[in-house]
Every structure is written in C-alpha cells, then in structure tokens.
C-alpha cells in the first residue's frame, strides 16, 4: 500500500500548465449511495419500495434521509419532524428512527464490494467513496462503472450512482447528473460528454462541491452565477478574493486535479462519544450512568485502533432555558495512558461528579479521550502499581465476547440496566445484520 501512496501525484495547485499533471492522472469515480439510510431500510423491508419513506435524526428530531417519493411530496432535508408531521400523516409516509448500527454495517458491505473493482479508494463518508479507475479504460469506463452499480445492488441491495471525471469536483457534479437522469442508468462519465461547457452553464455555483451559501452569495455578487462562468474566471483574480480554496475549485472545474485521492486516514487525535438524552436528566446517578456508557463505547473504539488515552474530558450541556451557563466540562490527565474500560470509567465518574449541579437540566453529555498514543508505546510509571497485563487480557476477552455475541452482550454495571435517559428512537427498525436476537424472521404462509 505504501508504495502506491508514495507514487501518487502531488496536488497540482497554483496554476501549473495542464501538461504537467496529465502524465500521472487519476480517473476519479465518485460512488454515492442513493438515499442511503432509506435504501438500507428498504433492503430488509421490500414493502417500502415505491412508497414515501423518511429517516429521522437522533432523538427523532429532523429528517435526514428521504426516498424520491418523499422528496416529490416537498419534504425538505433537515426540517424538524414536527413541522412536516401533518403532511407525513396525510400522505402515509413511512417514518423510521435512525438505525446507525445497520447503516454502518451496510456501508462496510458496500465498501467491501467496491474493493473487488479497484485497489485505490478513499472512503469519504458513510455513503460516499472515491475510486481511482485509472488502468480500467480498456474495459470502457462507463461499462465498468455499470458493472460496479449492478454488483453492489446484487450483493448488498443498495442502489448507487457513479460520476467519473478527471477531478473530484467534476466527479461530484457528474454524480449529481447521474442521479437526476434515469436514462444514464446510474453512471455518468464527464469526459465522454460532447458538450461539457454547455453542461457547466446549466449548473449554479451553489451546486458545486465546496461552495457554501456565503461563497455562492459572493460569487453571484460578482456576476459569476454558473459553474461555467467560474471556470472561465481569472484564477489569480479568484485567488485574491476567495483564497486557495476558491482557486482550487476553479482549477478542478478546468479538469486540473488539485485534490488527490486520500487513501490513508490521518491518525486519530481524539475519540469522542456523546449523545443527546431522550428527556432532561436531573439526577447525578443518571448522568453518571450515561457517562459510564459513553466511556465504555469510546474505549472500545480506542482498542479497535490500538490506542490508549492520556487525557479524559467529560462534558454536558444543559437545557437552553435553564439558568446556568450551557456547556460544562472537566478534564483529567491520567498518570499512565490507558485503554482499559474500568479504569477510564473510574476517572470519568469522578469528572462527572465535578460538573454536575443540582437543578441543572442536562440534555446531552459526552466523553472525549485525547493525548492518544499507540498502546504498545505507553510509558509506564514505576509507582503505578497496577497489573496492566491482566487488565489488557480482560479487555481482550470482553471485546471478543462482544464481537461474537453482539455489541453490548457484556456490559459494565456502572452504565445502568434500564438507561431510561436514552434518546428516543421509537421507530427504529431491527439491527438485523449485527444482533442475533434481531435477525429477520422468515415465515411460511399456509
Ligand atoms: Mg448519498
């Protein structure tokens, strides 16, 4: 893997001539899962095909995924659920609470399937992956991409779209077009367009990857309304007004790649686990239960990445209308960096006691581990007095049991049993790919 990385071209920013970058080109293909969370729900419930479906954010707050039928009803992204509740009831829209355990596992399956098609890929988000299709030109890029679309659908049930282009920014635009136009069957190769300039003229600057609402306003105030106009603009002029980020976007629109494929995740600096509560938490023991639960989840992530933490922060946020200031936090430096859940919970509970106050209506809490070091390189202390070897074995056994029997099969009593503070997710579908007791059941009808 490392040799592939060293050979990658350096970002060609700063207006070098096109010929300098064309020699070692990457062919970017952006794979984007269509309406991903809704599609995951449909895989295990075919009754949802062809009907409007939406998925809600944590605590059932806002709409975060919509089927095409729900979009056609005019339900917008990120609107609070209560604002569209009437419409949803009238149109019999199926509503689901977010099931991130399921979506994470389905994402892993999609990525695993994509790995069959090219060794070079960047996982950009839970439902987006950039591939390098350089070297597959002979197969015909569009045909090859359609093969990818068909295989992912067949193996995972998830529909995807692919946009192919010489730069990431154009691949994003190509992907949007692939989604909008059914005749393309989920794939668009920007380089094969007979009229790329004309196509750019139909795209508003606000639709371009990396241009947010304020960038859009500024560009429009200068008369640059379309992607085509931005492409034609003087790159030095844009550099002065919008900085290197603006210039990069312009060059990428011209087909000059400035954003390389990033195949290796940069090392973690911290691990965070935080959640909103389903109701205001007012008792210390409830806050401590939540903090113990979040600590134990974050510690699992630490061990997955073979890291130990030197610093631990506990924070909580009070309800907006309570009288106290809103965020409260406390940090402790551990004598020896650790990845052991019981030890971390002990420290976290002490910090939780410090930030708790009577009459505080807490709506959210979280734990952050920082000062991360590889577990093999942890500096011990001669006065430590702890048997770290056996603590490590205990954690290994815990993780193995939970991997086999499902996450949370073995838990710490400090995290409580009932967890009545847990966030609302009253409409969550079964976590049928990761929990034995939530498997799909097949019934024969006599
Ligand atoms: Mg998507």
Question: How far is the first residue's CA from the last residue's CA?
Answer: 55 Å
- Architecture per CATH nomenclature, i.e. the level-2 architecture of the largest domain: 2-Layer Sandwich
Radius of gyration: 25 Å
Task: Note the run of SSEs as H and E.
Answer: HHEHEEHHEHEEHEHEHHHHEHEEHEH
Shape: globular
Q: pLDDT under 50 segments (min length 5)?
A: 1-23
Q: How large is the count of helical segments? A: 15
Report the biggest beta sheet as strand number plus sense, adding barrel if it closes. 5 strands, mixed
Provide the domain count. 3
- The CATH C-level name of the largest domain is Alpha Beta
What name is given to the CATH topology of the largest domain?
Alpha-Beta Plaits
For the largest sheet, list the strands in their spatial order: 5-6-1-7-8
Bin the strand percentage: 15-25%
CATH H level, superfamily name of the largest domain: Reverse transcriptase/Diguanylate cyclase domain
The tally of strands reads: 12
If you average the pLDDT, what whole number results? 89
**What bound compounds does this protein have?**
magnesium ion
User: Which structural class matches the secondary elements?
Assistant: alpha+beta
Query: In which range does the helix fraction lie?
Result: 25-40%
Structure write-up:
The structure is a single chain. The chain is an alpha+beta fold. The chain folds into 3 domains: 11-33 and 103-253, 2-Layer Sandwich (Alpha-Beta Plaits), CATH 3.30.70; 36-99, MutS, DNA mismatch repair protein, domain I (3-Layer(aba) Sandwich), CATH 3.40.1170; 271-415, DNA polymerase, Y-family, little finger domain (Dna Ligase, domain 1, 2-Layer Sandwich), CATH 3.30.1490.100. The chain has helices at 2-7, 18-22, 36-43, 68-72, 81-90, 100-114, 141-156, 168-180, 196-201, 213-221, 227-232, 235-253, 284-304, 341-355, 388-405; strands spanning 28-33, 53-56, 63-66, 94-97, 121-125, 128-132, 160-165, 187-189, 271-281, 307-318, 327-338, 362-374. The protein has a 5-stranded mixed sheet with strand order 5-6-1-7-8. Strands 9-12-10-11 form a 4-stranded antiparallel sheet. Helix 13 packs antiparallel against helix 14 (341-355). The protein is globular and about 70 Å long. The chain starts with a helix and ends in a 41-residue tail after the last helix. Bound molecules: magnesium ion.
